[in-house]
Amino acid sequence: MSHFTKQGLSPFKTKRGFLNLHYRFSFPCIFSPSKRGIDTHASHHLDRKPLISDAELRFEFAHHDPAVARVNNGSFGSCPASIIAAQQRWQLQVLRQPDDFYLNRLRPGILHTRTVIKGLINAGDVDEISIVDNATAAAAIVLQQAGWAFAEGRFNQGDAAVMLCHAYGAVKKSVEAYFSRAGGRVIEVQYPFPVSSKYEIISEFQKVLEKVRSDGHKVRLALIDHITSMPRVVIPIKELVEICRNEDVDQIFVDAAHAMGCTKVDMQEIGADYYTSNLHKCFFCPPSVSFLYCRKSETLPDLHHPMVSHGYGNGLPIESSWIGTRDYSAQLVVPEVVEFVSRFEGGIEGIRKRNHEKVVEMGQMLVKAWGTNLGSPPEMCSSMAMVGLPACLGISSDWDGLKLRTHLRECFGIEVHIYYREPEDGEVNPVTGYARISHQVYNTIDDYCKLRDAVNKLVNDGFTCALLSI
């Protein structure tokens, strides 16, 4: 393949044969750090490479299990072979000369990554960008300082945090651990699912903030998902941030675990105080790497990494760049991921657009085949969609959803997330189960046909979740 040259290292075996992961791009490897550090401006000198071919694309994801239809990219993401190879080169540099790496190369490498991310998200300053392991770690950093605010008397007992009812479970646990335990009130904004319009969410959010204010309480923190995990819905964050500003909410934290590579991310447009997104979900990085954006403001408190190390007191970006001896390679390949996505027509914006169009098309195909509905309008789907499953499958609990997910994996070779929706009173023959489907560049229509046909077979065979004992 024209844009790769072999490095002469041992191959990695897959079910499709031998795949040599140890490749480098044919342009000079400017992202490999020199002993003087990394040239953060070198990306301007890259030769433009041709658009990725179908054969090259298949190669990049040839390590995927060919027996499995992966329509669940949203859970754990996907990393192409060339990026795996880049990560391995970083790991080998550490093992070859760890003292030189940790003392001379790591910090410039992290700074390069932060600089690249600053440009990707239209942040105002590189010092607003910190690199962390994942969005859950970012939430802990933000919520930890809220807990300190109670202890230091800046927040009063009964001050509130507002969050969406479908916020990610781990973030809800962080709110419980840091905010509730310190004496804060937590108020969840309820909204319907399926959702028919963004205004259903906007209206409920506005009502909650107005009620808290009328009751004489202070909202110290609003936690807003950019894209909820389960059920999957794109949230109108710009409108919700504006409501928060009008209602004098102290701090606004956007949990955007899925957003990077999935929807537009622009810090100047969004206007939140804190924003985090994973880069290993929809942006092709290896696990795990995320960024936490903290808007520069004299009114916002200093944040600190929960793992205190030698950088403590020098600002969160420095604290986060060194938390002890560990594998930092996933954080260092971000510039090469940017080069990877640039090989697709339209870059990451083109990938997002095509993934969105395809997931809506596949979702509508499944809806037609199963006689159900989408969980949200197409404009609220991004590159993932909630597709109603036939009611006759008898999904009556979260446990049923997990059993069905396992059954589809083990018996049909399909990986898809299943969501249980509790029916409303009086609903007749309700759709209680939804498949959360993703689309990524490696997916083909056969993946979704495989899911369609498997569910149709279960229906035709009279299958119900009650029959599963796992």
Shape: globular
Query: What is the overall pLDDT average?
Result: 89
Biggest sheet statistics: 7 strands, mixed
Strand order of the largest sheet: 6-12-11-10-9-7-8
Number of strands: 16
CATH class of the largest domain: Alpha Beta
Query: What is the SS-derived class?
Result: alpha/beta
Strand coverage percent: 5-15%
The CATH homologous superfamily of the largest domain: Type I PLP-dependent aspartate aminotransferase-like (Major domain)
Query: What gap, in angstroms, lies between the N and C termini?
Result: 45 Å
Query: Rg, please?
Result: 23 Å
As an assembly, this protein is single chain
- How many helical elements? 15
Tally of distinct domains: 3
State the share of residues found in helices, binned by percent.
25-40%
Q: What is the fold-level CATH name, i.e. the topology of the largest domain?
A: Aspartate Aminotransferase, domain 2
CATH architecture type of the largest domain: 3-Layer(aba) Sandwich
Low-confidence stretches: 1-46
Give me a quick take on this structure:
By secondary structure, the chain is α/β, with parallel strands linked by helices. It contains 15 helices and 16 strands.
